[in-house]
Amino acid sequence: MSNNKENTESTLANRDVMKDAGKVHMDEAEGWGSGIIKDFKRTVGTHWVTEMTNFNQKTVAVTLLLFISVIAPTLTFGAVYGKETGNKIGAVETILATAWIGVFYSLLGGMPLCIIGSTGPVLAFTKAVVRIADNIGVPFLTFNAWISCWLLFYCLVAAFFDLTRVVRLATRFTDEIFAFLIVSIFVFDAVGDPFSDVGILRYFDPNHPSHEDYAEDENYNYMEVALLSTILGFGTTALIFVFRNFKSTPFFCNDGVRSSLYDFAVTMSVLIMTCVNEFLFSDVDTEQLNVPNKFEPSFQCCDSSCTTFFPDECPDQSEAYGSRDWFVDFS
Predict the structure, then answer these.
(1) What pLDDT digit, counting tens, does each position of 139-162 carry?
(2) What is the pLDDT of residues 173-215, one digit of tens each?
(3) Rounded to an integer, what distance in angstroms lies between the CA atom of residue 290 and that of residue 213?
(4) Helix (H) or strand (E) holding 322
(5) CB–CB of 296/320 below 8 Å?
(6) 267 and 65 in contact (C-beta within 8 Å)?
(7) Comparing C-alpha atoms, which of 113, 72, 75, 80 is closest to residue 233?
(8) Which of 27, 71, 79, 188 is 20 to 30 A from 14 via CA?
């Protein structure tokens, strides 16, 4: 009886110490529009100038890391966008969008280390928008532009009425699940996606699309390409860990050298493996990033109406009439 009483008193004491433990406590809603002003003052109005002028070794290292992390998937997704949208959105458009949105978000969003770029879910949504636009008989770019305008409107309404505070209702468990999903997507895309042709291990498939361009080349060996691509991919990852571990080792003369190796681990690993590919195995035709030759809209027109794509829809034509306009007609 006395043990039960002691347990009850202990439980009550813990409950008093941690009142409403486990419950989500919502902040009081800000006045209409005041949340935007407070966020702006808290980020741009305080440390913005200091961070924008904080040019040092670590900011250079982070900048190179973000560039390497963004440029490869941007070009890859650009090629897929071009295939799914009939080149109405291609590599040039994805590069331009990623660049200006990334800079704008870093300057005004208060999160300069946030990676901005194309993702699989957005690509799937775009494919659905293309099919809907074709079914209802409206231009895809116009339809997509109006969808973007409505999304901007919804975001402004959510920010103005402080609806973003409901994100607090997402528990740590939900956050970990979403983080695991994102990490899984990046790992599958790098190593080998079982549901698509993406990933370095996919090069071992003799029917991989990257081997089609060398089908008539007798000297081409897809196994050599697959093996070298695998070595370069995993070798780059291994070098990154090696360089980053130097910070906690007694090697080199001072801590500055070890910190530099730590900061530029990703950049140096990519450069080293690129040199290995270009100089030691120059005779092996590994797949390269498809970089556009000119910075112009991806959709090349057959004629002045710009409704047909060169050269697929006008194979007898020697050169394109021109490219589509940068700006979309909303009418």
Answers:
(1) 999 999 999 999 999 988 888 888
(2) 777 887 788 778 778 878 887 777 778 888 898 888 888 888 8
(3) 13
(4) strand 322-323
(5) no
(6) yes
(7) 72
(8) 27
